[in-house]
Amino acid sequence: MKKPSKISPDKHFPPILKVVRLKECTSTNDYIKENITALENKSPLLVTAENQTKGKGRENRKWHSFPGKGLYSSFLFRFPIETKINFLSLAAGIAAAESINSLTGISPELKWPNDIEFRGKKIGGILIENLIGKDFINSISGIGINISCSRNDFPAELSGSAISILEITGKKFALKNMNIKLSSSLLRWVTKLREGETETIMKKYSGYMKHKKGDEVTFHQTGENIKGHFAGLDKTGGIIIRLSNGKLETFYSGEISTATSQIIR
Ligand code: BTN
Q: Most exposed: 71, 128, 165, 173, by fewest CB within 10 Å?
């Protein structure tokens, strides 16, 4: 295993959280996966890097990293196998939205499952990877937030769809402060998940959701585009779409877009 640059208590982080800070890695999610045998007993754990050379997004997309200008953090949690793990994605979305709001005053919206947006542009995203064992799930929640990138940093293909906190507020927020807010919020919501408070998670998540019940949406899944209307969140953590034939269908993976929002690549 690669030697972590640092694992030490830091009085600003929640006391039970172990923190590994890296100058650079390929991807903070991959760092945890590659070192899982050594790291699994250290959960809850945060691995954060100043830069990623191969940042990953959902649906096999690339996540662009800008050294020192974005938050690139992955959390490792170990859950009993019976945990309703679909809700982790919602819990992580809430934590990202809540911590951005508390640090910067911005009111972000969540596009299901967990794109973090401001006025239709993407501020951040979340990639959850679950390693399912016999009795436990080692779950990695990778969170990326555009903190102080400027317009010129974004590559041409993202220029119309991405935005940073600096662009919205005109202020540079310290990555460490964002990580501290994010960590304490995520630990709170993960505790609710552990305690089976999925109703509370759904309710809070709905408050941040960009899509409202009845909105016309297109659902994108494995190359298929399914038209329908957003009908709410399902009790098992999926999204319910009323299809054009009137039937209700629940989806657990994929993405949605509306007439005014496109899938951001
Ligand atoms: C998405 O919106 O597609 C998800 C983006 C997730 C990016 C974060 S950055 C930290 C962690 N490491 C990665 O390689 N990806 C996630």
A: 173
Count of H-run helices and E-run strands, the chain:
6, 12
Question: Which tens digit of pLDDT belongs to each residue from 173-212?
Answer: 999 999 999 999 999 999 999 999 999 999 999 999 999 9
Residue nearest to atom 7 of ligand 1 (CA): 144
- CB of 127 closer than 6 A to ligand 1? yes
Going by C-beta distance under 8 Å and a sequence separation of 6 or more, which residues neighbour residue 229?
Answer: 214, 215, 216, 217, 241, 242
Q: Which residues contact 208 (CB under 8 A, 6 or more apart)?
A: 93, 94, 97, 108, 109, 110
Give the pLDDT band (50/70/90) at residue 6: low
Atom of ligand 1 nearest to the CA of 27: 14
- Alpha carbons 164 and 117: distance in angstroms, whole number: 10
Q: Which of 48, 56, 183 for a ligand 1 pocket mutation test, highest count of atoms within 8 Å of Cβ?
A: 56
What is the distance between the alpha carbons of residues 73 and 21, in angstroms, rounded to a whole number?
9
- C-alpha closest to that of 64 among 144, 148, 160: 144
Judged by DSSP in three states, 221 sits in strand
How many whole angstroms separate alpha carbon 74 and alpha carbon 49? Answer: 9
The model carries a pTM of 0.92
For residue 260, give both structure tokens: 């005014």
| CA-wise closest residue to 43 among 80, 70, 8, 16 | 16
In angstroms, the CA 90 to CA 205 distance is 6
